[in-house]
Amino acid sequence: MSTPPTIIDYKERAKELYQHKSYNEAIRYFERALITNEEKEYKFIYCNIGHCFLQLKHFPLAYTFYNKALMMDKKYEIAKQYKEKVLNKLKELNKNYIEFLEELSNQIENINTGREYLEDEQKMMNNSGKGNCARALQNITKFENLNKMVELIEKTRTESNENNFKEKKDEMYKELEEKYQYKKTNNREEGYKAYLYRTWC
Asked: Tell me: the pLDDT tens digits for 33-48?
């Protein structure tokens, strides 16, 4: 009859997986080590699970497990150091994430300025009695594209979180530029002029 795996077996396997950057698998083996009920080892296992989540950039979970390790031993210096490191990272991410959300709002305002510009142009054409069918159709296309751009930005906002927003932002601007020739700007007037006037007129 084979001997059941021990906490040491699980820990060694978890460490191997960690070294090979298989962090999710490593977490599973560290968790198996916990169910062996050798409580004196818990602080080390919690800390190692924290390391895995740190590598995966799941900072809130990393913080939770470093904190669990410290609940087992308040003087556990490694857990203290990494908890502080993750806490600083979370503060930095929160600040950058908030700035990112504000940036998305600014880009939507820029696009809405473009809508206003188009509406004013259309009114001038109608009031002057010099309506141009080709120009009117072009404006309809512009409106459609502006709407699609807003949808893309809103979609990015919905799908983003504190861990992935940088990647999502890069993807969004790349698509905006490739599909619609729109580039990021922090000035509403410059935004619509650069996009609508320079690119299309």
From this structure: 888 656 778 899 999 9
